[in-house]
Amino acid sequence: MLRGSVQWRVLWLANATFMVGVTGVVRDGEGRMLLLRHRLWPEGRQWGFPTGFAVKGEDFRQTVVREVREETGLDVEPGRLVRLRSGYRLRVEVAFEAQLTGGTLEIDPFEILEARWCTLDDLPQGMQPVHRALALGDETA
Questions:
Q1: How would DSSP label each residue in 34-77?
Q2: Is the residue at 106 inside a domain?
Q3: What is the total count of domains within the chain?
Q4: Which side of the chain, N or C, has fewer Cβ within a 10 Å radius?
Q5: Residue 52 lies in domain
Q6: Which of 126, 24, 127 is nearest to 79 (CA)?
Q7: Is residue 4 part of a domain?
Q8: Which whole-number Å values give the CA distances from 1 to 9, 12, 101, in the listed order?
Q9: 27 has which bridge partners?
């Protein structure tokens, strides 16, 4: 039987390595949701929540904090896990609720084209289907 570091190396080589995409369903004190129009997402599906990939060893809640700050300049407190599932190919998708705690909205123009606070009644057209489902509270989508 293999043990220790040799066992882990064999397991690493034999199994898929995943990228982890982390999304923050950010709400302000009025219950509105922060939606971003992402520059690098496909045309017609550019609207969604702040999202990015976790770096190796990063706590996924901290990924939400980091990504929201990088994309918008805002500070958030991550909350409840609302989605955890396998994604496209070798990706895992994670989403947390998050509450706005401060900062000043200043978008990163390299990644983000536009930001807006929305209610369920004014969600933008062209929203990623998974993100629309999260907005509507459908955690099974």
A1: EEEEETTSPTT--EES-EEEPPTT--HHHHHHHHHHHHHSEEEE
A2: yes
A3: 1
A4: N
A5: 17-135
A6: 24
A7: no
A8: 14, 16, 51
A9: 33, 99
Residue 124 has pLDDT above 90, yes or no: yes
Is the four-CA dihedral 121, 122, 126, 128 of positive or negative sign? negative
* CB-facing half-sphere around the CA of 72: CA atoms within 13 A: 29
Rg of the chain over Cα atoms, rounded to whole angstroms, equals 17
Q: What is the DSSP letter of 127?
A: B
- For 35-77, the pLDDT digits (tens) are 999 999 999 999 999 999 999 889 999 999 999 999 999 999 9
What is the model's pTM? 0.86
Kind and range of the H or E run holding 93: strand 91-103
Model pLDDT for residues 73-121, shown as the tens digit of each residue: 999 999 999 999 987 777 899 999 999 999 999 999 999 999 999 999 9
Is residue 39 in a domain?
yes
Question: How many angstroms separate the CA atoms of 66 and 57, rounded?
Answer: 14
